[in-house]
Structures are given as structure tokens and as C-alpha cells.
């Protein structure tokens, strides 16, 4: 009888330990969900005071790397978001992204957020979440100053350059199929090809093209056609499941618009462009759920 009682007691203890290890009770389940929740940017910023932000490195006025320094409007927006999350500039690690790797970088955790002329689309929202938009752009064309191209309806048979995986490239493929689309991994390569006469036009968002056209080495050589043929909502990409982080980004943007720091970000990066600072349209901010 004594042996039987001891066996029963040992069996009960073993079962209890097994349940605890497997999260079989309510407490274990809650602990797991809390751990998952803490994978978001709000919790990471609060605990580590650090953020890795994916940005472009070859877009003058938006995201441009010179040595180890990044400058531009997207960089200023990144700083603004980091500050709202309680992270100083010294706690930011900038990581260069290109259009084709923005979703993988977010999904793999190589970056915490992406601020890289990142258009919000239904297809991308299947893979990542977006705060914003913080800017509304329009797809346009950059052409040589002497070009007779005045809009996308004149692209038949023309060599048009854009970036692989970008929204502008996809629009040319679907809406202007008679154009000869050339694709590179960066807009700077497209602009170099335009300068060398290898392509007839470069297409992406108007503000990106204006940045290239205003560079000293291209002064007077190019012009932006000025006939936008799309609306692009620039968002801030984060992990798909990070609803709290998405809502926090939107709150930061609204607060920045109210206190003037949103306008200051534009003025610091693009104040000399001649283009007026945008106003944040809170009605267009994403539904993060």
C-alpha cells in the first residue's frame, strides 16, 4: 500500500510538472501571449532604447547616404518616430534597403520599421502592417530637358526605367504595356542610364524625381514632366502582427502635426526644394487592426 501511495503521488507530481512545462494551465497560456506581445516596436523601444530603421540610401532629399551619414525627409520622419517611441538619435541604427527587400527585412526582423518611400498597397498589407501615410505622392516621369514626352500616354516604344519590385514599375507593366520597361535595383542607376542616353525616361514618385533633377551634376539636364498618373501613400512598414506599434506610429504622426515637428522634418530636408510642406491628413491614416 505504501508503494502504491508513493507511486500515485509521484505520478501526480509528474503530471503537474508536465502541464506547467507545456503551458497547460491558464497562467502558462497568459505568459506565452505576453511574450508574443512584447515583440512589437513599442515594447522593444521601451526596453532597449534602440531601433533599426530601414531607409533608402540613393534618393536625394529623401534618403541619401554620404559616408556613414543618412539625410533626407524619410530620415527625419524616422527620427521623429523614434523620438515618439522614446529612442534618441544615438539609439538608431540605419540600414539600407532597396524596394525588393523591404518586406523580407521586416518579416525577418532585420529592421524594426521601414521608412523608405514605401507605398501602402493591398498586396503589401498581406505581408506587413503600415502606419501613416506620412506623405502622399504621385507617380511621374523624369526625362531629358529637350524631351518631347509630356505624359505617360507617349511612352509607347520608349525605354522607361524603374526599380524592380516597386509600385511604379508594376504600374508601367500593367497600364502601359507598350513601353519597354528597364528595371534596376536603385533609382540612381536609372538616372545614370537616363544621363547616358540608355533610357528615355525614369518613372517613380514626383518628389523622388524632383530630388534627382535638383542635384548639382544634373542641373538643367532633366525635367519632371509634371503630369502625375497615380496616387502613392507613403507608409511606415512594421511587422504584420504589430497592431499596437502601428497605432502608436499614427499617434506620433498626429502629435507631430499638432506641435510643428512634422513640418520641421520637411523643412529640414526639403525646405530648399520650393515645394510647400505637406499637411498630415489624419483621415487617411491606416486602420491598423
**Overall pLDDT confidence:** 87
Separate helix tally: 11
Helix content: 40-55%
Spatial ordering of strands, largest sheet: 5-1-6-13-7
Biggest β-sheet strands, sense, barrel: 5 strands, mixed
Straight-line N-to-C gap: 60 Å
Spell the H/E element sequence: HHHEEEEHEHEHEEEHEHEHEEHH
Description:
- The protein is globular.
- The chain has 289 residues and is an alpha/beta fold.
- The protein has helices at residues 2-22, 26-37, 41-48, 73-84, 102-108, 122-125, 167-175, 187-195, 206-213, 243-259, 261-270; strands at 51-55, 58-59, 63-66, 69-71, 92-96, 113-119, 128-137, 139-144, 159-163, 180-184, 201-205, 222-224, 232-239.
- Strand 3 and strand 4 form a beta hairpin.
- 40% of the residues are buried.
- The strands form 3 sheets. A 5-stranded mixed sheet has the order 5-1-6-13-7. It has a 5-stranded mixed sheet with strand order 10-9-11-8-12, with helices on both faces. The chain has a 3-stranded antiparallel sheet with strand order 2-3-4.
- Helix 4 runs antiparallel to helix 11 (261-270).
- The chain is built from 11 helices and 13 strands.
- Residues 1-37 have low confidence and may be disordered.
